[in-house]
Amino acid sequence: MKIVIAGAGAVGTHLARMLSNDNQDVVLIDANESKLARWSNELDIMTLVRQPTSIAGLKDAEVNRADLFIAVTPNESENLTCAMLAKQLGAKKTVARVDNYEYMKPENLEYFKSMGVESLIYPELLAAEDIAASSRYSWVRQLWEFNGGELLLLSVKMHDANPKDEREISNKENKLVGHTLKEIGRAHGHSFHVVAIRRDDETISPHGDERILPRDLVFFMTTKDNLPIIRHLTGKDDYPSVKNSLIIGGGKLSVRASWTLAPLHNNVKIIESNPARTEQLPSLVAPKTMILQGEGYDMDLLNDEGYGSTEALIALTDNDQQNILACVAARRRGIRKTIAQVENLDYFDMANDLDIGTIINKKMIAASHIYRMLLKGDVDNVKMLTIGKADVAEFIVKPDSKVTKKKVMDLCLPFGMNIGGMSRDGKSMLVSGATQLQAGDKVVVFCVSGTLRKLDKYFK
Question: In 10 A of CB 32, how many CB atoms?
Answer without folding.
Answer: 11
